[in-house]
Amino acid sequence: MTYLSDAVRLYIDQLVDWDSYYRWQRGGDVDVDAERAALLEVLETAASVCSEIEELAREGWHEAARLEDGEVVYPEHIRQGYEKLKEVGLISYGVESRYGGFELPGVVENVIIQMVARADAGLMTIIGLQAGVAEDIQLYASDELKEAWLPRFASGEVMGAMDLTEPQAGSDLGAITTRATTRDGKTFLSGNKIFITNGGCEVHLVLARDDSTFEESKGTTRGLSLYLCPRTRADGSKNAVYVERLEHKLGIHGSPTAAIRFDDAEAFLVGTAGEGFKAMLTLMNTARLGVAAQGIGIAEAALAAAVRYASERVQFGQPIGQQPLMKNMLARMTLDVEASRALLYRACRLVDRNRAIEQALMRSAENDEFSEAERVEMEEHRQANDTRVRLLTPLAKYMATETADEITRMAIQVHGGIGFMAESEVGKLHSDAIITTIYEGTSEIQVSFALKEIGKGALAAVFEALEAELASFEDERLREYADKVKHGMKLILDASSALLSDFSYALMSARSLAEVVISVICGAELLKQAEADPRRFDLAASWINRRMNDLEGRTARIKEGTLARIERADKIIDLVRPA
Ligand SMILES: Cc1cc2nc3c(=O)[nH]c(=O)nc-3n(C[C@H](O)[C@H](O)[C@H](O)COP(=O)(O)OP(=O)(O)OC[C@H]3O[C@@H](n4cnc5c(N)ncnc54)[C@H](O)[C@@H]3O)c2cc1C
Description:
The protein is of the alpha+beta class. Among the domains are: 160-275, Butyryl-CoA Dehydrogenase, subunit A, domain 2; 457-574, Four Helix Bundle (Hemerythrin (Met), subunit A). The protein is 62% helix and 11% strand. The protein has 19 helices and 11 strands. The strands form 3 sheets. It has a 5-stranded mixed β-barrel. A two-stranded antiparallel sheet has the order 1-2. It has a two-stranded antiparallel sheet with strand order 10-11. Strand 10 (314-315) and strand 11 (318-319) form a beta hairpin. Helix 5 runs antiparallel to helix 6 (121-140), helix 11 (372-415) runs antiparallel to helix 13 (443-455) and helix 15 (476-499) packs antiparallel against helix 17. It is globular.
């Protein structure tokens, strides 16, 4: 499995509708074939740089970032990896071209993140945040801030961090107490943040509570604003942003995770005062797709190592990969990686379409490029996609990161005892994978978000698109499997209506509901892949056979369930609760 896999090429060559994308994004005549070729060239460059980075990263895996005189010192493999990406311009690749960026579509950005994560999961956190922070500045900051910072992000000169978490505010960001005070027309931040990835960098995007509404908004996400807080002031003096310590972690050692103190640090408002949570959600959603890509990259590395080892290690006179149990395990690992990819790229495609439509609508407001009827149709399409993205984003993050955790663990199993040795590559990958299920919102938070979107009616928009796709197959074999997916969708709709009558019970079943919805979305997407490339038919068929059996059981249990299940859970936990 190379860095630029057949699956990625399939999306770039056939499965993304670049004609509509570029027509909306740029208008006029665009040479779509040339654009597509350019995207592939960027990905080939990224693949080649990442395979060089991998070697450095595996050797330097135990080396952690350290703090010297209040400044973060990166380990050599991170420093070199960053420089290599910077040399080929692959830092903050989504920044608009007028600020010196490549303005790459999200699907391509996430393939790059995936490659960097496969090579070095620690380096990926730095690159991923870099891109996310730059994007938020691009979307919400004033022209002055954009001009001051975006060219420096695009060139890789400055790095970014996202500062949300505080000791009492983890999953619950309404508990944030970092305070923003305005004096003489300037804003200053005071408070403590923890677990800040890349906390020693120059640009911090900080979520803080406004002094003027502090008491009345406490405990909620209202009253939070987003600030850009640089570590160096415009006059070159140091701003009051201090790196208090770096954490020692189970994995991603090269990625510095810092406790940060803001001690009346000068900061600049990004977006509208009091609407910081909304602006930060944009960054968090981009970052969630990025962490999903990180999970897929790590899982790909573990899968490649497992397949390689299974073909080399001989026991009972033959390679272990010839044992039926091993074949089943490797096939299951491949299915889960490919399904995670299918879900992520589906979400990215929708995000890209919506951004392109927004650009088209903005242009059209000035030059009447589209008729009134076309604009109405585009706006409706954008709104339906938005609903889909709000459901697909948490599902993609949940699926890809849980898969990374499980696949890396299975890869250790494939290696037997040698997989448990301190220097084992798959052991390192497993240690790196665990965090993906925790940061940018834990898996529990992702499935709860998905449930909330389902409660607001998102399944209708998602299933409407799936129905149309499933009805479009001409090949007999694809139609047979499409019918199975359609049956699964019907069972989910039956079960979910029973669920939504009680929110506590629904929350208890949120993981099961997420799993079954993922089963049908990935089933449809894998069938689309098989339509474009018949070699992928067995992948789609196997996924659908396995997951539809599971779906029947899960939906039946969801449907039968009552609130008594929560009481029963309490009684079970009581058996082990300390007196
Ligand atoms: C290496 C690393 C890097 C990080 N980088 C950053 C960063 O750059 N910027 C930043 O701001 N933060 C960062 N974080 C913080 C990270 O986002 C939080 O750790 C995460 O959001 C979880 O918060 P918490 O640790 O306080 O756990 P808690 O919120 O205390 O959660 C503990 C457990 O309870 C569960 N739980 C909590 N609420 C619910 C609920 N409503 N329903 C069901 N289960 C629930 C969680 O799923 C979890 O299993 C990082 C963390 C780490 C470890």
